[in-house]
Amino acid sequence: MLSRFGPLRSLPSFRFLALTPPFPGEYDGPKMLTKVPGPKTLELSKRIDGLQDPRALHFFANYSKSIGNYIVDADDNVMLDTFCQISSLAIGYNHPDLLKAAMSPEFAQAVMNRPALGLMPPTDWPDLMQDSFLQIAPRGLSHVFTAMCGSCANESAFKAAFMAYRHRERGGKPFSEEELSSCMHNKEPGSPKLAILSFEKAFHGRLFGTLSVTRSKPIHKVDIPSFDYWPMSPFPHLMYPLEDHIDENRKEEERCLAVFEDIVQHHPVPIAGIIVEPIQGEGGDNEATPFFFKRLREITKKHGIAMIVDEVQTGFGASGTWWAHELWDLPSPPDMVTFSKKAQASGFYHTLETRPSEAYRNFNTWMGDPIRAFQLRTMINIVKRDDLLNNVKETGAYLKKKLEEIQKRHPDHISRVRGVGNFLAFDTPNVEWRTKMLAMCRDMGVNVGYCGSVSVRLRPTLYFMRKHADIFLTILEDAIKKCK
Amino acid sequence: MLSRFGPLRSLPSFRFLALTPPFPGEYDGPKMLTKVPGPKTLELSKRIDGLQDPRALHFFANYSKSIGNYIVDADDNVMLDTFCQISSLAIGYNHPDLLKAAMSPEFAQAVMNRPALGLMPPTDWPDLMQDSFLQIAPRGLSHVFTAMCGSCANESAFKAAFMAYRHRERGGKPFSEEELSSCMHNKEPGSPKLAILSFEKAFHGRLFGTLSVTRSKPIHKVDIPSFDYWPMSPFPHLMYPLEDHIDENRKEEERCLAVFEDIVQHHPVPIAGIIVEPIQGEGGDNEATPFFFKRLREITKKHGIAMIVDEVQTGFGASGTWWAHELWDLPSPPDMVTFSKKAQASGFYHTLETRPSEAYRNFNTWMGDPIRAFQLRTMINIVKRDDLLNNVKETGAYLKKKLEEIQKRHPDHISRVRGVGNFLAFDTPNVEWRTKMLAMCRDMGVNVGYCGSVSVRLRPTLYFMRKHADIFLTILEDAIKKCK
Prior knowledge:
The structure is a homodimer of 484-residue chains. The first copy, chain A, has 484 residues and is α/β, with parallel strands linked by helices.
């Protein structure tokens, strides 16, 4: 199967500004030996069923054989990976710099002596923070709260928003006796009725606070108690191509902003913070324009509401900038920016104003994990050295242009091509067709993810280059044709 | 300072049944060069203040110099560690077996290719689960949900309890249209009003669900919205020594059980699950007898309520058994047992009945981390080979006996010596005296933790031996005398 991609490499050249080095030792293309899931995956799935729920499994992967943009499954099928562990693989599999970093004594000590970072951080922690998180801190946000995962990062950000809101309400005075005693019973005033607002189709996680602001799919939420007084506001549904629908889209965003401002002013429960994704990843890759986000910043600022930008899925380079919200040119920075996934380290950036009034208020045992800061530091060095942000911009632009061409050739099956950087998506006619088409892609050697009700999302590594894009595009169009 | 511990080693021998090998290359005793925090810690604290909240910091630690039961701080002070990263260090610092495991190519690949375990687990995952989690599974619980931290483990267990409860209520029928649409607005019936019951002074975490069941200290809870319909039940306050207060303690437990059963029967919101710690760690090392827990199991079973045992702090050997609840001899296993901290890997054990009705319901990106399962596997091998559970039993018994002797000599300052294995605690007269006395201990070379309002908790490694106990006891009594 490798040979079929030979001709692609001789196509007339698309102009690249940067010359990204290839991923060391990567495969030349997909190589499929069986259908996916293959017999070995099925055997392993049966084995694990006695121990752990296997129903969501796509396949078992052989991570020692996976290299760069290619994932190898238990049946030795080599697939181009455009889903990348649900958008959490920035650099590709088995990058030699990362393996080398992981095998250093410094790393081994950090992994096996995991500290309680809030009590007894390692002596190199200030340097490590400086060389990792602070290297890529969004403008205006120089403080970091470190956590273990994206949901934890978001919930800790909500807590910081609530604490800052109540601190301001108290005028900086200490807690009252009534607050301290009532909170032990989960009652007001100590456990106040305050809300976090989120947007329709948002996904922010699956713990009790984050699930309350997640609005993408019922299967995540049904049967779980939620904060019923946390409001939801509509998120724009844009028409594509954007340049042909400027007026309609502006009108749609103004409609959403009007509802938003109305909720902010009239919701019966005060709103301490809002959380918003730059592009709603799980909910269907729904975008809004910088105009929308600028207005959100203005309105939240005016009403003293914390603006939390959830960059768990969009962050760390996928937009061609370190953070997707850099593309908005906000009048003032967000109050908090949360991260995880591709950054591998999790947490949120914030201002000094959102540091809690006292110690131990936003705290836990591990407070993140230094090894993921090590990994982040190494990844930042790789991205800079290999100019991967420019690679994302250029490969992304090429990929988007080619997807638009495919859309023109198959308008009944592919629509609404959209996205920034290599964080791209398109829509399909319905869920059944999407399922069939993506299974076809996988059997032909490309692992592709979906989102929303009918969308397909691309979440390749930052090393995803034109040669990978061409392989993906050929297989995609092949699958579309076969599924017609 | 080392020399002062010389004489202790020539005391008449306490009979040991097992011969635990010493931790390789460990220090002979504490060695203090400065007060704690020393000048280098203070300098680093100032540096980190611009990046991260430093107010809870005890000291910066030099983890490459820390060995076994000894932690070395930034000022080169060597301290015997009985707090061990808030009870999360099972084996000691820099164990050669763990460092060796961490520096293997297998480990490096696992750490740098972190998988989405629910979608694309590594081919060795079933074997790894078998050799780690399943090796020490509590009786009757052979399924594992893996997570990233203790709070996430507890919240995922709550979700499993809610799903199982509603599934039973629906008689196994599929979700209704109304459930699916209402849950998107956080409203009933899709987002049901159902409760998790917890106990007074319990600590189960700090995210929105776990914080709602945490009842230890207001500083964790104040200003954060909570589930106000989740009830709290009293937890026994026992009198010591236990053998002299059998009748009073039974009466106290019966009082608590009567309130508990009353809440279960009459709480206006149905209770889907309860969560309980074998010993309430953060809340003051409050114990109950097996009688109490057996009755909890009987009552929850009778009313179809999930019993979740939170072994985040008590689990992985501190009780001298793998799990503290093994000491209760329950009539039937708990429905779920959660773990994290010392086990390093996090999650919960459960029965097949508490597996959700469909895929993707209890799910997230990473679903835990294979490297922590690797670490768990290596730690289990060390514990077995070096007979560390017996070491905990024997050292713990010795330590408790000696603490009771100190209590007799200083009855105005030390009371209620209690605990199992090396999970021990005692009370002090008040918080000011405790603060002063523990600071004195630290300056003399022992790092000790506290809990509850006036308690001191010991959380040493499983390698904590009589020689360490003697050093701790000498310094403790010295500090008590100096603080009188």
